Amino acid sequence: MKKVYVIAQVDETKCIGDRICENVCPAGAIIMVDKRAQVDESKCAACFKCEDVCNEGAIRFVPKAEVQILRVEPTEVDQDQLRALCRQANLDPEDPICMCTLTQAKEVAAAILKGAASPEEVTRMTGIRTACAMYCMAPVLRLLQASGAEMSPPSGYKWYPAVAALWDVPEEVARKYPQYRLGEDQKAFSHEGMIDNMISKLKGGSHA
Questions:
Q1: Which of 3, 33, 50, 113 measures 20 to 30 Å from 107, CA to CA?
Q2: DSSP secondary structure letter of residue 61
Q3: Are 76 and 95 in the same domain?
């Protein structure tokens, strides 16, 4: 969840149209019009990244007329579908996958089940990726990929569809380096292992 108190505004007399602010905006709120940045105020999530990277001082933040809350309530979607999506992404629904906003995997999964099909749309719905963005992009991509969303990197350098994790280690690599016990770890954390056990505990049952 993220509370948005302010929004970005561009001083067109200072903007040089270098597109850096557009590239770093996690919500996709900035576009270039006639070689000048423009902010879609309905999409701005007040991450301050655009202001940080603008060497011309062309961006400032002003108070919003009303505070906006970016949050998706997980209980508003089918819970079996939510758990299945998290399981497919190898994530515990209760895990906070953004340390800055404390957004949980189940909230991002709910946003995807409600129609979010890109990292930018997930950000606009939940507020995730609006602070340091050092850790949260990977689980967001993993959930989107698990949902079947077709994604490719946008122009610039907003994000890249690469997630390095235990689940992505090829079988031949695990066999080549048996001393690291990668295969055993994959099995221990498989769908039939830890994640289903955690989900079962959340439901109040027992995993057979």
A1: 50
A2: E
A3: yes
